[in-house]
Amino acid sequence: MMKVEHIGIAVKTFDTSIPLYEKLLNTTCYKTETVASERVNTAFFRQGDTKIELLESTDPDGVIAKFIEKKGEGIHHIAFEVADIHAEMERLRSEGFVLLNESPKKGADNKLICFVHPKNTNGVLVEICQEISG
């Protein structure tokens, strides 16, 4: 794993959360995107090398809506950038980690992504991601 790529934060609505994070981070939201397969809208902020991703559910039965219902708004996951997501997934499996995806899937911000089950990471949802080239 090369670096922390972003921290994902579950929010109820962008209407209040984007302005809040723009004030808090003293920067503007540089990108919003819908990831239909995950039933989520994403909004990105950057401070130096650090990115924050806000996650807003597009479906009341979506993963983010259920997360907020159970735990409230807050940190949802931490994402690590990897050079080769396929090799990293194989390495994690060989180390005994349970992956939530059989193969990488397209995520937001031009990334291939895979999640590691939080039961293997002391309750922290970990995402690994690789920039899609080309």
From TrEMBL:
Taxonomic source organism: Sediminibacterium roseum
CDD domains: MMCE
Protein name per UniProt: Methylmalonyl-CoA epimerase
Presence of the UniProt keyword Protein biosynthesis in the record: no
The entry's keywords: Isomerase, Metal-binding
Residue span, VOC domain: 3-131
Main enzyme class: isomerase
PROSITE patterns, alphabetized: VOC
Family assignment from sequence similarity: Belongs to the methylmalonyl-CoA epimerase family.
A Pfam match: Glyoxalase_4
Record-linked InterPro entries: Glyas_Bleomycin-R_OHBP_Dase (IPR029068), MeMalonyl-CoA_epimerase (IPR017515), MMCE/EMCE_epimerase (IPR051785), VOC_core (IPR037523)
Gene behind the chain: mce
GO molecular function: methylmalonyl-CoA epimerase activity
Recorded superkingdom: Bacteria
Protein EC: 5.1.99.1
